[in-house]
Amino acid sequence: MNKNRLFNLKRPHQFFGLGFGTGLAPKAPGTFGTLAALPFIFITMHFPLWLQIVFALVISIFGIWACGKTADDLQVHDHPAIVWDEVAGYYITMIGAALNWQTLLVGFLLFRFFDIAKPGPIRILDKRAHGGFGIMADDVLAGIFSLICLQALIKVGLLPF
Q: What angle do CA 41, 136, 105 make, to 5 degrees?
């Protein structure tokens, strides 16, 4: 069966699971999916820190459902087009950061590094967790690692606050 026929952005779980369609990019769908977090980052940038954290929890928990259901539709555990996990991971990276081109770029690069390289516990989660939780968990952890690194760079003055 042609997997492209299984994509249906009219289905709400696929619309979100595929990152509003960014996951259908022919090259580097994860990179394009990461960029789909930008509207959420810009909309919530002035929210209090606690509300940004709550929002990150909501999009991550929602992602377990959307990614899991989309994976079931596609009959592939973590199809490259499923990118809501990248949306959540990059959003987590940017929690509490002052937004400017430097923090957005460094946060993006940090997240993509941790998402692709999958060091240590990220790799373990990626291999052992399954379903929607498995799709989301490694990217959420990559986002947390990236958040810590980004905040450290800001704290030591290498990035503007």
A: 35
